[in-house]
Amino acid sequence: MIHSTVKSATASKEKDNYRSLSSHIITLHRRLLHSLNLGTRYFDEKTNRWKWQSVNIEVQKNVLRSIAAFLDSISADARATRHTIIVKESAADILGALLWILQCKNEPLLSMASNVAVKLVSILPSPLLQPRLLDLVYCLSSLLSSHQVEVAIPCATALNLVISNLSATSEKAVIEALKETEISICIVRNIKDCGAQKIEYFLEMASLLSTILLRWPSSRFPVCNDVELMKVLANMRTRTDCAIKLVLLKLYTSLALCDSVAQKLIEDGKVFLQMIVQAMGKSNPHDVRIEGFRLAQCLLRSQENCLKVMNLCGEALVDAIICGMRETGPCSKKIENNYGSVLVEACKLAQITRWAGNHHIRFWKQGIDEVLLNLLIENIHDQSSELVLPLEKQISVVKEGLKLNYHVALRSYVWDILGWLTIHCGENSNPCSYTHESELHINLLILCACFTFVDAIQKWCRICQNDADDNFQSEPVSRAVLMMIYSP
Hints:
Strand content: under 5%
Strand order of the largest sheet: 1-2
Helix content: over 70%
Structural class: mainly alpha
Shape: elongated
């Protein structure tokens, strides 16, 4: 009885979903089914599944048009993609027909078919593609070397989407398929030969390569050792187009995740490093600046690399970091929730303060004390305009400021940076020797750290383990206070 009730409720829900669709989507779905019925279905014993086929080029063209129209219609209706039974029921047939047409490699249809593949992987939920995902990867990979640019470009785009959205369960099998097809070798060859092609060709191939290198670490070093490829990338660095800048930075970041590759890139010299620093500047779009900071983070993961870079362009790099950390914006909540922001990436890069060096002097000269204070207390400049504040007033300002939870998500970075600046503070980088204002900022920072530390200790004593934000910052602030105690 219960089973029949549940079954009835499910059927009723499916009918409601169907009724919620527009008549236009329903019409396009019927046309799709009619087009598919013009082909034939056969049972493949090797794969133990039904497959669609048709050698008639006009039938194939009609099917592609029907698939494209249906996908366009459901992409405009979020309910259709998420809830509708006809989408789930049609996915296998759509994917099967598309794979057959791509495998036929009828040149007049390949461009249309590869563009439909892009729509398919960008619109349908990943679980619906899962049963034939490997077939799709093999098929698209084989077409990357097509002499038709109009085919190779969308195939690269579709593959990029597939790899970017891989689930943990399918990742290993897909990576093995990519190895088997020698896809990285194919893409590198395409990039080296892209001189006469559209710039979009380079962008899509380079973007796909960076995505593969992120997922497939063992492929990074061979790619970087390709001298001809690295020359092509170096030549592209002179281009001012923001799209080229962005894809180059992402590709270099993927390569720099390998330590030996990062060292080789640094040895490339000042010109390469200046490109990165320039990318962090305010004159660039938001996404270009973010990638500039991320690439720098990869290059500066070791003290040895950090010292090399600082000797080549230390001042410019620190200036770019400080500039990024000053971009707090009008609304703290928006920044806290946007972990891809320039501010967050600049704070991550500022953690190069963990290592001793002359860059500490530059950080203090550029007002790192004021920058850190601005990340802890909103509008602190207005509250500390007087050069001398009584201790009671300082305590009041700090207590009230910390209550507002301004930039809570950034506080762990602030405490780490403050602690490292303190522990490496010596005669050559004494912040209090610069201005009276710096001395006030440092006093306020010390108070902020101490009050947060005391608050964390009290909460530990109450065994308060439910507040993620407090747990998130308690360890860094404890380190910061200890570093202050043991600093010179």
